[in-house]
Write a structure and sequence with these properties.
11 strands, Rossmann fold, alpha/beta, 6 helices, 2 domains, 3-stranded antiparallel sheet, Enolase-like, domain 1, Heavy-metal chelation domain-containing protein, 8-stranded mixed sheet
């Protein structure tokens, strides 16, 4: 069950440090010696982040395996600060498809499409939004509860999964349930890591940051918009 996580941690070199860390209401940002990474927060941050500054990046990355989801978010942000670079670490296994919204790929397809989690930018594609099956931990009217994935996910042709499922450890099971579907890992929490493509994921749609967003320490009621950035597919 931990293979996905161990493979991500193994890609982080030793000797790198956390330079800066901050958060908004639903998102945490971490700047390391190599770049900036982000991860979703499952609850508002309520403790001092200062002790994480200066720590070894690989050690912090290992926190992704924590069952304390706040610590796991820090671990994922640390991983993304290294992996989510414009050159994709020059990994020959990854093919840059460009900066585009992967939801647009499913707008006119008749396939059964599901998302794990809500994505606000789906509203840009009303035809897709009308027929989309949404599984959500906190379901809204019209959504299915997360437990329904056990019954309905195997029926889907395409499944777009929020990268934050790495934090709450639901991703491995979701991938088992979606084996027959095209799976895309989506959002700012998504690591652009070739190793993920060995576990039934077809595409990665993450975010590359050049620097920390302005006023990163100022919480916003609506959170931080997720920007679908580089998408990576098998070469």
């Amino acid at each position: 069950m931990w293979q996905i996580y161990d493979e991500l941690i193994a890609q982080i070199p030793t000797g790198l440090r956390v330079q800066q860390i901050g958060h908004r209401q639903r998102r945490l940002y971490l700047k390391s010696d190599t770049g900036v990474g982000t991860a979703m927060l499952f609850q508002p941050w309520d403790t001092d982040l200062t002790p994480w500054v200066g720590q070894d990046l690989k050690t912090v990355a290992a926190e992704i395996k924590s069952w304390d989801f706040q610590r796991a978010s820090i671990g994922l942000a640390a991983i993304n600060s290294y992996l989510n670079q414009a050159d994709l670490r020059q990994d020959a296994r990854l093919n840059v498809l460009g900066q585009h919204d992967v939801f647009a790929d499913y707008q006119d397809q008749p396939a059964k499409v599901a998302t794990i989690g809500h994505f606000y930018y789906v509203d840009k594609y009303p035809k897709l939004a009308q027929r989309l099956t949404v599984f959500e931990l906190n379901p809204r009217p019209g959504d299915y509860p997360a437990s329904a994935t056990e019954f309905l996910l195997p029926e889907m042709n395409a499944v777009l999964i929020t990268g934050s499922t790495l934090v709450n450890k639901t991703l491995p099971r979701l991938l088992e349930l979606a084996q027959q579907a095209e799976v895309v890992l989506v959002g700012g929490s998504t690591p652009l890591a070739a190793s993920l493509l060995d576990h039934g994921i077809s595409k990665l749609a993450g975010v590359v940051y050049q620097d920390l967003p302005k006023e990163v320490d100022q919480p916003r009621d609506h959170g931080t918009p997720l920007v679908v950035g580089l998408a990576a597919d098998r070469t």
